[in-house]
């Protein structure tokens, strides 16, 4: 099921001329799927809840809508005038009694398999009916001024849903969308990076201001399925300081994981791992990181559960001599930390092991890349 992404939503509050209680909320938004494509001329279902006190607080009002997006992927509803009333009475909400939060859930296919799109805090502050103004504050502290029209009952503002780890991220350089996952205290991309222009595996990648990638067997479909393969210098964009952005997206705080970052991930899924050890280590951390099944991995794909959500794929590697090796059998990922001279630390997972391997790898190898998000 693709997750619908709300990029822009407009909230219009229709207030009775002599009351501070909203009689309806007009909500308009644009829907896009996880590939970044607009959901056009399609029925979707919405579940909208008003919560009191905190984002996990009591649901004081709950409603459902089935609407159709237009040719620009926009849809609109009036909160308080639902298709189906699930619980509560909108006109009886005591807006001055508590902080209130609006929770939005959607199903792209107009069913009941809702995806949580975000919960935004809305705090109304005291205002004068003579001034005809209202301020709403979201949970990030952003204020939105509401202005009354000549009839005294139309108020408009823009609501932005804050990005959270677990939401897709779009790389502005090429428009590609990557899934993300929260694992312990870390936020990782849940897909291998696939940025750059493919070059033939027979030659080295070069410092020419163009991000270059290898695709296994020089086949672009393998990059589409498993991500690109990169030499360490290209990954680092010819810097040597660990933790640099490198070829990761330039916005959002994404950077190349260090050897220590990888160990934090490993210890989250397999606490017995010791950071200084090398080779395959621990018991079952690799299985918890690997995509389960054998759609991409060779059988038997030992220990694979993907309970972490990391969804590691076996994209193989490009050897320094230019050959491609171990597609579907192994995956290799760079860290941004150097090891011995001309080597850097990497991680590997294998189809017949449930462990994680830590290797001091020759920099001319072509390996996959996962980005991690900083603060």
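Q: What amino acid sequence fits the structure above?
A:
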């Amino acid at each position: 099921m693709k997750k619908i992404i709300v990029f822009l939503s407009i909230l219009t509050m229709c207030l009775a001329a002599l009351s501070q209680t909203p009689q309806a909320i007009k909500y308009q938004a644009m829907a896009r799927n996880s590939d970044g494509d607009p959901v056009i001329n399609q029925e979707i279902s919405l579940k909208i809840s008003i919560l009191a006190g905190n984002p996990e607080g009591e649901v004081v009002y709950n409603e459902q809508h089935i609407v159709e997006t237009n040719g620009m992927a926009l849809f609109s509803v009036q909160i308080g005038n639902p298709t189906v009333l699930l619980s509560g009475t909108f006109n009886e909400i005591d807006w001055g009694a508590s902080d209130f939060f609006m929770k939005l859930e959607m199903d792209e296919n107009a069913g009941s398999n809702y995806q949580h799109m975000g919960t935004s805090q809305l705090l109304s502050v005291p205002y004068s009916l003579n001034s005809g103004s209202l301020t709403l504050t979201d949970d990030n502290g952003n204020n939105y001024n509401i202005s009354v029209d000549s009839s005294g009952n139309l108020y408009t503002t823009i609501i932005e849903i804050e990005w959270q780890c677990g939401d897709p991220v779009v790389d502005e350089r090429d428009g590609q969308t990557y899934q993300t996952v929260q694992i312990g205290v870390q936020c990782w991309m849940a897909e291998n990076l696939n940025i750059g222009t493919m070059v033939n595996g027979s030659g080295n990648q070069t410092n020419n201001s163009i991000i270059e990638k290898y695709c296994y067997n020089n086949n672009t479909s393998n990059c589409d399925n498993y991500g690109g393969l990169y030499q360490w210098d290209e990954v680092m964009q010819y810097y040597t300081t660990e933790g640099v952005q490198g070829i990761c997206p330039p916005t959002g705080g994404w950077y190349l994981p260090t050897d220590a970052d990888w160990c934090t991930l490993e210890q989250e899924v397999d606490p017995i791992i010791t950071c200084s050890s090398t080779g395959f280590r621990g018991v079952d951390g690799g299985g918890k990181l690997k995509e389960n099944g054998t759609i991409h991995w060779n059988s038997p794909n030992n220990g694979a559960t993907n309970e972490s959500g990391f969804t590691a794929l076996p994209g193989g590697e490009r050897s320094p001599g230019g050959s491609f090796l171990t597609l579907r059998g192994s995956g290799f990922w760079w860290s941004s930390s150097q090891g011995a001279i001309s080597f850097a630390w990497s991680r590997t997972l294998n189809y017949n092991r449930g462990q994680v391997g830590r290797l001091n790898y020759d920099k001319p190898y072509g390996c996959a890349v996962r980005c991690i998000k900083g603060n």
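Q: And what stands out in the fold?
A: Residues 169-373 form one domain.
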